[in-house]
Amino acid sequence: MEKKPLTIIIAAGVLLLVLIVLLIYMFSGGSKTGGEEPGFFESLFPQGGVRPGGALPTPPEKSDQGEMATGTPEAERAELKKEGKLIQVIKKPVVSPAISQDASRILFFDKQTGNAESVAIDGTNAQKISSTTILGILEALWREPKKDNYVLSYVESDSLKRFIGKTSTSGVIFLPSGITSSQWSPDGNQLAYLLPLAGKTNLVVTDENAKSPKILYSTPIPDFILFWASKNKILLVSRPSGVAPGILFGFDTQTRRADALVADSNGLTILPSPKGTSLLFAKTNSSGKDLKLFVSGIDGKNQKELQYPTLPEKCAFAADNVTFFCAVPKNIGSFAVLPDDWYMGNEFFNDTFYKISATSTVMQEILPTGSFDAINLFTSPDRKYLFFQDKQDGTVWRLVL
To answer: Does the global pTM surpass 0.70?
Structure first.
């Protein structure tokens, strides 16, 4: 019976000691912040930093002096801007920016006014280049290599319409209604488009003024997207969805034969190189996840998977046809279905930029992770600059390479 008071005293002492430890932990901050030493629980799990499910850690906050810590992506971008290596050349929402034939200006359509305009590649000397004004513009396909003509797609009275416009005149040439996709030939002398008729999708080719249309190919498969990869090679890829298998056909304009190049691939998206010798394509699993990016020959052979995946429409080939640049999202895991969720604007990507070789597939980081969701990438012919549009606000940026 004499041991019972002693037991009570010991238990009370242990409880008091635990209470003191907890109070010390609570009033000392509990976890690390900024440059402090690791907190109690962080010291138990030193690997930390990445949340369950693969989400990235919160970006570093600014210091008490209002400056970003050196060595962070934010600090690197700030330094690039300070040095003039990263500048915003167009500060308003635009549609289909492209570099002029002489590489001295950026051509675009103002999203708000519908005017065709241009600026110097440093963002100065804005000019209006066409008297045609169209509202509701969705896309402009500039004719290579001169960029003097364009196919404009726009919405009017809930109807999608297309016409050929010219920067030199105000006249337009309307294309048939119902066209689902169109593309200029590499030399700009012909125009191809897909036109559904009588239950079939018809590949039609005309001259540059939409005259003398000829149906080169018909297929019962609907909803293709058209790419004119080289003089005699047209690519037809099914409209992508992460929850539906896609297919890529290569059509030879001389033999008029269509061959399947990539088949049974969910979320299939592509980008051919300028000379039509290489191909970037991405695909997902049957649930629209596990995005993978590949580079191959234009025939889909000799496939090589890249280390960091992205969508081909977030890439651009340089003029040498070997080097290409990609904006690689670091938050891919937060999307339920790709590319569907991104197309619908459910969320934006958070990109890091890379320079990549099509032969070695080595990826070199050229711009750290930031707030950009890059689209419409293109380079200057001398590979001195990379231009891209931020999907979030429609503005255009220039990065010195």
So the answer is: yes
